[in-house]
Amino acid sequence: MSVLKTEAITLGRTDYSDSSQIIVFYTRDYGKIHTIAKGFKRNSKKYGTKTIDLLTCYQILFIKKEHSSLYTLTEAILQNNYQPVRNDLDKYYKASYIAELVKEFTEENDTNKPFFDIFLDTLTGISNSTNSAVWLLSFELKMLKVLGYLPELRSCINCKNSIQLMREVLFNAKEGGVLCELCQSNIRNGVVVPAGAVVIANKLVDVNIHRLERVKIQSSICIEIEKMLRYYITYILSKETNSCKYITFR
Ligand SMILES: [Zn+2]
């Protein structure tokens, strides 16, 4: 039995008994973990106990037992509760959506520090920014890259011609990228996207996250990029996420 310490963001929680909850965290050092939190409760005043909030960053201490994947949470010290996210429904939905993506795309105990940092920076970005749509799209694209799911967005996956000078392309999830007009004939499904939107999506993959606040993208382009990404993410997960339907682009 050992006590471990790490930075952690709350992804989900369910009641386990009157005074305990199962809390899912994404952590910097241990990836996604499930913990049992005894004496922590949603309504802290009523029960006179401590509480763990969703979409919040904590420094946590937990006990890892052998032969059990459920860890025991012993302490959670608040680092950031992203207050602007709680005061703005649009920000809240976007932050909830990225937390759902982290939960769905990660395996238990699979450490990925670069991905943790992207998640943490994006929560801060959505919290502080007036441009949360760009932060959301950047998160989806950077996530796909860092987890090894990035589709081909630079050139046609068949003829390899650059999409820079094209008007429209067909994005096909199964083929894992875009097809030019000449190469689409055998492909029956996918989404048609303006090539210019795909070029911008491709730039968002690699743009330095600390410079993202300066990036401005028209909302019509954001909608096209999101349409393509949502279709692709639904294909990878084999289901639609619960929170994506609340996302809007203004
Ligand atoms: Zn082609």
How do you describe this structure in short?
By secondary structure, the chain is an alpha+beta fold.
Keywords:
250 residues, alpha+beta, 8 strands, binds zinc ion
Strand order of the largest sheet: 1-2-3-5-4
- Determine the structural class based on helices, strands and strand pairing: alpha+beta
Distance between the termini: 50 Å
Question: Outline, from the CA principal axes?
Answer: elongated
Which series of helices and strands comes N to C? EEEHEEHHHHEEEHH
Oligomer: single chain
Rg over alpha carbons = 20 Å
- What's the tally of helices? 7
Unreliable segments of 5+ consecutive residues: none
- Strand percentage: 25-35%
Q: How many extended strands? A: 8
Query: What is bound: which ligands?
Result: zinc ion
Integer average pLDDT: 93
Molecular structure report:
- The chain has seven helices and eight strands, in the order βββαββααααβββαα.
- The longest helix is centred in the C-terminal third of the chain and has 19 residues, at 219-237.
- Helix 5 crosses helix 6 and helix 6 (195-206) crosses helix 7.
- It is an alpha+beta fold and 250 residues long.
- Strand 6 and strand 7 (177-179) form a beta hairpin.
- The chain has helices spanning 44-47, 83-86, 89-105, 113-128, 132-146, 195-206, 219-237; strands at 2-17, 20-27, 31-38, 57-64, 70-80, 168-172, 177-179, 191-194.
- The N and C termini lie far apart (50 Å).
- The protein has a domain at 131-250.
- The model has no long low-confidence stretch (mean pLDDT 93).
- Strands 1-2-3-5-4 form a five-stranded mixed barrel. Strands 7-6-8 form a three-stranded antiparallel beta sheet.
- The site of zinc ion has 8 residues, from loops.
